[in-house]
Amino acid sequence: MKKTALLAAAAALFVATPAFAQSAGSIGLNYTNVEDEGDAYQLDGAFGGASGAIGYQIDAGLGQLDNDFDSQTIAGHLYWNGGGWRLGGVIAHTHIEFGDSLSETVYGIEGTWDLGPQTVLLGSYTIGEAEAEGDFDTSSFDIGMNYYFVDNFRVGGAYGFGNLDVGAVDVDTSNWRLNAEWQPWTTPVSFTLGYNSFDIDGSNGGTDSWTIGARWNFGASTLRERDNATPFDARTGYIQRLLDLR
């Protein structure tokens, strides 16, 4: 029931989005090499904007890892837009099929703060509930920063730490990411590159992955403007961090 209510809220937010102004977004195709797991492909998209003090964002993705499993992600963000800062909430759901199925619903708070015209600080705290053969709980605190050398070239990094509670097993997790995006022409096509590392303390169940991709951007003339409309580009939840899913 809780999962259904959360997804219904995200869907309601999506239906409401046409009333907002200053909207922009992107559609991307990514290739990811997950160490010891294989090659993955994901089609993703994000759309958002603000109307006065209220902002929203919807993002989603469809992916496949070496024909072993399919993945689906969707997230809804609603936040207060303070001009140079944003603070709000997120609801995200991830589902993967690999013969069996694994689903996770995550919710929490998140924000961005402009430290200057070129620097943006990012932060979030999320908790999640996952369902497979058994249930487990997750939590994570993340902090990161983006720097714009110019409006069409951004580099960023993020670090997160959290907890994975599977009944009798309670372990700490950590995650760090590096990323860059560049739009070299007036044509609204950008290229992305990223590295993701996820570790589970006392276990060999972590992953390291590289991602390269391309995005078609719309509704904004630069990456900086698009990112103002879709400010949240985090990996939300245990599954997204483990497999580097957007």
The low-confidence parts are 1-20
Give the DSSP E fraction (strand runs of 2 or more residues).
Answer: over 45%
Termini Cα gap = 25 Å
Q: Which structural class do the helices and strands define?
A: mainly beta
- The string of secondary-structure elements, in order, is HEEEEEEEEEEEEHH
**Cross-sheet strand order for the largest sheet:** 1-2-3-4-5-6-7-8-9-10-11-12
> So, the CATH homologous superfamily?
monomeric porin ompg
CATH class identity: Mainly Beta
Mean pLDDT: 86
- Estimate the helix proportion, in percent: 10-25%
Q: What overall form do the CA principal axes indicate?
A: globular
Would you give the CATH topology?
Porin
Task: Summarize the model shown.
This protein is mostly beta strands and 246 residues long.
Provide structural commentary.
- The chain has 246 residues and is mostly beta strands.
- 11% of the residues lie in helices and 65% in strands.
- It has one domain (2-243): Porin (Beta Barrel).
- Strands 1-2-3-4-5-6-7-8-9-10-11-12 form a 12-stranded antiparallel β-barrel.
- The longest helix has 15 residues, at 2-16.
- It is globular.
- The relative contact order is 0.19.
